Amino acid sequence: NRVGDISHAIQTYVERHGIWEGIGRVYFWKQRHSNATFRFIRQKGRLVRVERVNGLGFLRADRDEASWQFIYDSDSDRVSKIVARDHRGIVQRLQSYNDDLSRLEYRDRQGRPKPKQGTDVSLELRELDEHGFIKRERFANLHEASRINDEGANGYERLQDARGLTLRTSVLREDGAPGTTKRGVSYTAYEYDQGGHVIQGAFFGTNGQATLDNNHVAQWRSRYDERGNAIEMAYFGVDGKPVLNKDGYAQWRSRYDE
Known about the structure:
This protein is mainly beta and about 260 residues long. The chain contains one helix and 17 strands. It is globular. The protein starts with a strand and ends in a 5-residue tail after the last strand.
């Protein structure tokens, strides 16, 4: 980091007014044993960069995006752009906001539309609540024509807790009315541990009954060790009993070295 930068290791984050806020600070002795954490880097109190790093502090190479640079408007001081790079420093995506943060565009490094993987979604139309969290989002192309995501939703309505963690996402149709995904999911409910890790997701249909999502499960539950590493994920059917997901397994477990 450059002189004057202040950095902290963080377990997870939420978005408020377009800027990421860390949840669950990780101290150095624990971060060294963490498979992946987010390094939040600030200058003069303002977030300028986030990096996803391994226990040695190096950028992780297991995803397309490993670091995110935050660029601010010089007049309003609001975030105007987020530049996403891979672990080699190559720009993968530009995220551009309009003045009131109601429009988020996805573009490549040449400025051309870059839809989210597996979709035609290159624009999110957003409504923020009084705390700056996203309460409603609709998916579109850059001409604002409605598009669906990989689950078949035209958008979501979100309910958050005081920290900004999403407790429930309700599917929206093209006209903004309540809808369902391709698999018939109307809404998803989430639970978290004290560190902000999501430890359960459950899927429900329009009748409020458990239903299967596109992974062919009605619920999943996860566990983390004391260092924040994911050590278990288990899948369950509509009857609450273990079930095979679409890839043919009902549970996975992980162990980590020192």
